[in-house]
């Protein structure tokens, strides 16, 4: 699975100024990812104020917004140890463990939110209001899933490419995919499922930097597509709620 | 607030066989805490099968159960480094950081679940079914809150008593309590709010062991009271659903 389980030699990597700067960039991307949810949920919560049948759903969404804002505040205050100021070298492994544990806390919360938002809530809106203008379009739901998968795969890569494979840092969707693949006898060498494709351990810090930079671009593209979809949904909600008010 | 911010001398503690064994006990208590939710939610999910108006709430609860089961599996597979087998001494700080990050991931999830279960869902059940026999009694809701507060305060103690005060390991309910206290000019020396009472740094490993053992007893008592309340709720739900079936 990883270098560790193959008993390959594991070389401890040290944080470089370049990697520090890429990690800071990716931290900002996580922050934008969280903010995009806070923004779209706040808009939706505003619209739900007028729809009394959805008042309990509204309060559930407010709870999520508070939690996401709290996470985002922590991330904004957090600083990676700067190798330029450190008295001794900073192991990449300890930095990655610390930030991965936090990212996974955020992502597992977003997983439950995504389920609530794109499944239970969508069905409930249609069932209670018969108003399809308040639901999320399929394209938005696909983007929500795509971005989530992208961030999950990034965290898996960030850890496993330097042979971190801790029990407490496992990810539900990946463990679930592996379990299903084993039950269904899926050939892990031939699968298209991104959660089943193996993470190759990096050879050195330069390779880790190059790949981290590529990940930063992938995450950035994924967030742009997501916020674009969220913005479109907000426009449709507002247009429809104004039309209704003018009737 | 803590030794670190008072600039006191910080002595690095090493994991002892005694502390290792107390940490294992507390890990088992966390596991029982998670299992108690899985158990009561599964019973409730079973009862909801017959109530079609609550089918989307049922699917939301199933999502939570899966997440909690996943967390519990990780915890069951996890082993603390055993100081008896370790080649060199194990710093308590690194063990506490690792397990606290995991406990907080679980507790922040339980916080959102508690809100959904004890607020939104309770109102929704009454609104949709007018059946108060399906709701949670006030005593159960109080116990849910009490246990949550107890586990949160324990994790805060476990970290702050050895001067761990990381940004990424902050806890929403504690930060929220502090923010409100500052806004309301609450005297932090005189407050009854357990989240505002200061954690005193320990002097040595013996004191940490003694207090950890006391915490283990407090957590154990809190879980017993909670599971007792959950069991009573299940009995009432089943009795009422059988009565209804026999009508």
Structural class of chain A: mainly alpha
Largest sheet composition of chain A = none
| Number of separate helices of chain A | 6
CATH architecture of chain A: Up-down Bundle
Rounded mean pLDDT of chain A is: 93
Q: Can you describe this structure in just a few lines?
A:
Chain A contains 6 helices and no strands.
Overall description:
Two copies of one chain form a homodimer. With 247 residues, the first copy, chain A, is mostly helical. Chain A has one domain: Up-down Bundle (Fumarase C, Chain A, domain 2). Chain A contains six helices and no strands. Chain A has helices at residues 17-48, 55-77, 92-129, 138-160, 172-183, 205-246. The first copy, chain A, is globular, with a radius of gyration of 20 Å. The termini of chain A are far apart. Mean pLDDT of chain A is 93; it is low at 1-9. Chains A and B meet through helix 2, helix 3 and helix 5 of A and helix 2, helix 3 and helix 5 of B.
Topology:
The structure is a homodimer of 247-residue chains.
Chain A: H1 17-48, H2 55-77, H3 92-129, H4 138-160, H5 172-183, H6 205-246
Helix pairs in contact in A: 1-2, 1-6, 2-3, 3-4, 4-6
Describe the structure using short key phrases.
homodimer, mainly alpha, Fumarase C, Chain A, domain 2, 6 helices, globular
